Amino acid sequence: MTTKINSIIEDLKSLTLLEAAELVKQIEEIFDVDASFNPSSGMVMMPTLDDNISSNQVEEKIEFDVSLDVVPSDQKIPILKVVRSLTGLGLKEAKELVESAPKVIKEGTSKEDAEEIKVKLEKEGAKVSIK
Fold it and tell me: pLDDT, tens digit, for every residue of 51-85?
C-alpha cells in the first residue's frame, strides 16, 4: 500500500464510533452511494453507472409554447397589434386568434423568446402563460 493509503487507514483507526458514523454519512452523500449492509448478497450496495447518469441528468425543456389566456375587452386593439407583429398574421386571422383566447400563439419557441413575447403581451394587458 502507498503511504497515502496507510495514512488514511491510521486516521480511520483513531476515529470514535460517532466520528465513523458521520464519515459514512458524508461519504454516502458526497458519492451518492448506500453503505448499508445487504444480507442477501453480503455486499455494500453501490449505484451503477446508469443510475448515476440518470439521477444527474434532468431533462431541461428547450421548446416552449406561449398561450394567450385572457384578453380584456378594452385592451383588444393593442394586444391585436402585438399578436400581428409576433405572428405575422393578417388582421382577420390575428383578430380571430385574440378573440378565441385562451389560445396558443407561438409554438416551439426558445425560453428567451417566450419570455420576451410574454412581456410584450402583458405590457398591453393580456394574461399569458408559457408551457
Answer: 445 545 556 778 888 888 888 888 888 988 888 88
Q: What is the DSSP letter of 127?
A: E
Determine phi and psi for 130, rounding to 5 degrees: -115, 125
Task: Map out the domains of the chain as residue ranges.
Answer: 1-37, 64-130
pTM over 0.70: no
Burial of 1 (0-12, 13-18, 19+ CB in 10 A): exposed
| CATH code of the domain made up of 64-130 | 3.30.1390.10
6-30, pLDDT tens digit by residue? Answer: 888 888 888 888 888 888 888 888 8
Q: Residue 97 is placed in which grid cell?
A: 386568434
Sign, CA torsion 62/63/69/73: positive
Identify the CA nearest to 86 among candidates 101, 68, 70, 61. 68
Q: For residue 118, give the nearest of 51, 47, 64, 38 by alpha carbon.
A: 64
H or E element at residue 107? strand 103-109
